[in-house]
Structures are given as C-alpha cells and as structure tokens.
Design goal:
With 548 residues, the chain is α/β, with parallel strands linked by helices. The chain is 38% helix and 11% strand. The chain has 18 helices and 13 strands. It is globular.
Length: 548
C-alpha cells in the first residue's frame, strides 16, 4: 500500500487536502458537472428532486435510476435484455455525480473503470446470451473502508492519501464476479467511530432528504448515496450502528448481520489490525428493499466465503427456512433515553398495524441500554484511540469537531486486566439479553434505531439503541417507515425526564427543523438467526409499508 509516512512528510495536510479534492474532481466528466448558477438555493431542504430538473440525465436515465427499480428488479431487467449494462451503469454514474456535487457523499470515484466494465459485460451478454451472474450490470457503491486496486484506501486519514491499493478486498471481488459494477466508494468519519461522516480528506456529507440534518455514520456516505439513488445497492460496516444509523437518517433499508455471516477479511482497517475489543465489526448492505438485502446475503453465502475467510461460519444460512409464519414480536418502546415524539409515534403505529394484522405483540424489557453503552465505549477505546492519534500526528491534521463531540477521544487506554473486566461485564449483558428473549418468547424484537431521527450534524452522540445489538451480536434490519410531521409530532409539553441526559436528548427536538426527516424501525433477530430474520422482516415490511 506504500509507506504511510511518505505522503504526509512531503506536503502540509492542507496541500494534500487540495490535491485529493482536485483528483476527485478530475474523475467527474465535465459534461456531468453543475454550473455555479445551476445549484439549488443554499436553504433547499430536500435535495433529491434536483436530479430531475438539472437536465444532465435523460428521461430514460431518470427512469432507470428511479424508485421504480430496486437492485432485484434492475438485475432482472438487464438479464431480460430490457437495458444494457452500459445504459444502467452510465445512468447511475451520472446520478451519483449530481448527488456528490450536492451532498459530498463519494470518496474514490470509479466512473471511468465502471463504464469500461459495463461494456465488457455487454459484450459477454451479446456473445453468450447469458449474464455472468445474478448482479450482472448492477451498479454498486462501497464504504471507503474496502480496498480497490489502483485506488486509495484513506478511511479519511490524511496520512494515507495517494497510496493506491495493490489489491481489491475479497468481498467486492466476490460481488464483481457475480456481475456487480462498482462505481465509487463512499464517505466516512475520521476515526470511523462517529455517527457522522466528516473528515479532513473529503469533508462532510449532507443528508439528501433533509440537508440541514446529519447523514449519520460511520457509513453515512453510503446512506446518503442510497437516498439519492447513486447506486442500486451499497455496502457498509457496523460496529456500533454504522449501517443502521445512516439507513435511518436517510430513509433506506439496512442490514447488520451477525458476526460470521459476511466476510470482512482483507478490508481496510481504521485501527490496529489484530485488535480484539470483544465487539466485532460486521459488514452488510444498504439498499431499497428487504429483498435486496436478502439478495446480497444469498449471493455472498452462495460463494462459500468460509473457504477464504476463516471468521465466516458455514452451514448457518444454508438451511431450508421454516414454513411461512407470523413471528411473535417483542417491542422495546424505550431504554435509557426516551425517544423523540416522532420515534415514539412510529413504534406505536407499527405495533397497531401489526396487531391489526394478527401478529402477537409482547413487551420486551432489555438490560439498560445506557449501561450497555458504558461498556461498549470502554471496549472501543481499549487503546485510548492510539491508532487514529498516530495517524493524525503523521500529517498534522486536526481532529474534526464531531470526533471530539461523541466523547471517545479523551477516554484513557485500559490495561489488559481492565479489558478482561469490561469483557466480563459484556458477557453478563449478553446473558441478560438472552434470558429476556427466552422469558418473552418472541421471534423478533421491534425497537427504535435511536432516541431521535436525524439531528443536526455532529449531534448524534448516543448510539445506545444500536450498539446494544453489536455487544450481544444479534442481527438487525432497519426499514424506513414514516416521516417527521409537526402536526402529528409536537414537542411533548408534559415530558418528565428520567435523568439529565434524558432531558438533554429531548431538548434537541425541533418539529419544524426536523420536518420531513425519515423515521425508521429496527427489527432484531436472535444471534445467527439471520436467514429467518430476513424472511420475517420481508413479511413485516409488507404489512408496515404495504410492500408487494
């Protein structure tokens, strides 16, 4: 990958930043660039519709990239010969170029290589009459933390710019073999431990749905990319909510698998390789439907990834699922922090819909989520964040504000004995969660994704509703459900806080500022029960969102 000190010693971080942005800009064709006068007004809230009026995409390209297609139906249309791979990939590259100029969600732009690959796929289809695999010609984006040969893997560290990778990570290689065309990588936060996507290399990503609010993190560039429909399917990672929080902020679907389901070997680390906090990171998809999440999982598992990644568990998703069932649904209304009014409404409405459809609903009382978060923050900082501090020191770049605000930066390192003590506490939480699952007798748990919807940039500092499931290693899926409506979601005038942090969380809520922000639901399954969870959530989504 090159010497990580080399680029940092030759130029200042500001010079490196300018050079990197110039390289990125050079990868967008001139005819896809917006003129200064063509940008929407600075106070435009929802940026998604601008693509329909900027006249860079043709009507056919707008149709291809519209919500009329998810990855599953798009793959079918290409396989049937309705669209060529070139048509589809070009359309999504153009849309991604517009989205990026408005929202800054892309990092390593690969449009030129993607278009060449699409031409190759069309030639194969023309000569054989067959697709190369189930994702033939389907445009995908990947979170920054995966290697692609010939492109940087900075993870938002200035010390790692202009050091192109000499290999591609196994997971994208697997998906490329299935026909996927990777068009870009997407933005992340400095350190990767923030529910925001801001760093000195690429800057901050805007939320396309409500540009005043955060896109989330750490897969925030991917969440924004999916919301703007820059690609048909995206890939993120998750160690504390990094797939689920951006999915919720941007109103898209996201799946955090159990550890051992999807291969992560050979990805681009943002910390010490070989470190073991006791809370493993996982990788999973963000997209436009539950069936797309399932398509991703099936394609990856069908490639038998346990044959190249020793951390992947075989024979977990390879069974015949149960006959169609109505899962018993446990419900978490609140734990640790009282959710904002629109989140509370979403849970109530979801419970009402499911009960009306004949689902059995049971209350679920988990171990205190703030207590779990106290454990996770100590395990995430076993090294006192010595790796990111080392990388920032190499280039002299400053810490971005959101990294300081989330509270990990100044937590001291732990001794080995202290690490064991914190992992012992984690083990007890896992036992308590399992006991509650058995007591309730549920098949899935319905819960908030966070104590609020997307908030102002940098303000999502509590991951208690997501990190609990990383600590316990349960799979979880986020589905969009509703939007903030000031008429339905006024400030709770009678709110009685449980503690100071509860009041501080509630004080962030502004119905007018958050108007239109997506409100999502999180549905959790038992550990390693991923295949059944995907099947259950497809049914639940059809009831909750009227999906076919």
């Amino acid at each position: 990958m090159g010497d990580s000190n080399e680029s940092a010693t030759k130029k200042s971080w500001k010079e490196l930043q300018a050079a990197k942005k110039a390289e990125q800009d050079s990868r967008i064709p001139a005819e896809w660039k917006l003129k200064k006068e063509d940008f929407p007004p600075e106070d435009t809230v929802d940026l998604r519709s601008f693509v329909n009026t900027c006249q860079i995409l043709s009507p056919a390209e707008l149709a291809i990239t519209s919500d009329g297609y998810d990855a599953t139906s798009l793959a079918a249309a290409i396989a049937e010969g309705k669209f060529t791979a070139l048509e589809v990939v070009t359309a999504f590259c153009k849309r991604a170029a517009i989205g990026h100029q408005l929202c800054n969600m892309l990092t390593e732009i690969m449009f030129a290589d993607a278009i060449e690959r699409a031409k190759e796929l069309d030639n194969i289809y023309k000569s054989t009459g067959k697709v190369v695999g189930p994702l033939h010609g389907v445009p995908m984006t990947f979170k920054e933390c995966f290697h692609f040969k010939g492109y940087d893997s900075t993870n938002g560290y200035m010390s790692r710019v202009f050091q192109p990778a000499d290999r591609t990570s196994p997971l994208p290689e697997l998906l490329q073999a299935a026909g996927a065309v990777i068009i870009s990588k997407t933005n992340v936060p400095q350190t990767m431990l923030v529910a925001e996507s801001d760093n000195n290399v690429f800057g901050r990503t805007k939320n396309p749905v409500n540009s005043r609010l955060t896109s989330g993190g750490s897969s925030g560039g991917e969440g924004a990319s999916q919301a703007f429909r820059c690609s048909a399917l995206g890939v993120g990672t998750d160690v504390g909510g990094s797939i689920r929080i951006p999915s919720a902020c941007n109103g898209v679907y996201g799946y955090k698998p159990s550890f051992g389901i999807i291969p992560m070997i050979g990805y681009s680390y943002s910390g010490w390789t070989g470190s073991n906090t006791g809370i493993p990171a996982v990788t999973g998809p963000l997209g436009h439907s539950v069936r797309d999440l399932d398509l991703f999982a099936r394609i990856v598992r069908n490639a038998q990834p346990w044959k190249f990644d020793p951390a992947v568990i075989p024979n977990i998703m390879e069974f015949v699922p149960e006959a169609p069932r109505k899962p018993v649904v446990g419900v978490i209304y609140a734990s640790g922090l009282t959710p904002h009014p629109p989140v509370r409404r979403a849970i109530r409405e979801a419970v009402s819909k499911l009960a009306a459809a004949g689902f059995e609903i049971r209350d679920f009382n988990p171990p205190d989520f703030i207590g779990i978060r106290n454990i996770s923050e100590q395990l995430f900082t076993l090294d006192g964040l010595s790796y990111p501090k080392q990388e920032l020191a190499k280039s002299g770049e400053p810490v971005v504000p959101s990294v300081k605000k989330i509270g990990f930066w100044d937590i001291p390192p732990k001794t080995q004995e202290e690490a064991w003590q914190w992992n012992t506490k984690k083990g007890q939480v896992q036992k308590d969660m399992l006991d509650e699952w058995q007591r309730v007798g549920c098949d899935v748990v319905l819960a908030p994704v966070g104590p609020h919807t997307a908030v102002l940039p940098g303000d999502w500092t509590s991951d208690i509703y997501t990190v609990a499931w990383n600590v316990c290693d349960y799979p979880a899926i986020v589905i969009p459900f509703t939007h903030v409506d000031p008429a339905l979601d006024p400030v709770d005038a009678g709110f009685k806080p449980m503690h100071t942090a509860d009041q501080k969380n509630q004080d962030m809520y502004d119905p007018e500022l958050f108007k239109g922000a997506p409100v999502a639901l999180q549905i959790v399954g038992p550990r390693l029960g991923d295949k059944q969870l995907l099947k259950d959530v497809e049914l639940l989504d059809s009831v909750l969102n009227g999906a076919s």
